[in-house]
Design the sequence.
């Protein structure tokens, strides 16, 4: 119940509500940061909220 099942929030919506992988909690305005392609295990997409992007200097995947 603490983690999503892999269903990504709407990636094109700037104010999407979703899971932030950096502070390990739900937040509004998450953006897709990294896409991890793995056949098995904990692969998938990593999202970060706005404060975490500022703190860690993260660049949204779509802005690269
Ligand atoms: Zn965060």
Sequence:
């Amino acid at each position: 119940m603490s983690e999503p099942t892999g269903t990504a929030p709407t990636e094109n919506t700037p104010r999407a509500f979703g899971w932030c992988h950096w502070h390990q909690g739900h937040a509004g305005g998450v953006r897709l940061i990294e896409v991890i392609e793995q056949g098995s295990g904990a692969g998938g997409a990593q999202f970060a909220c706005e404060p975490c992007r500022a703190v860690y200097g993260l660049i949204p995947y779509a802005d690269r």
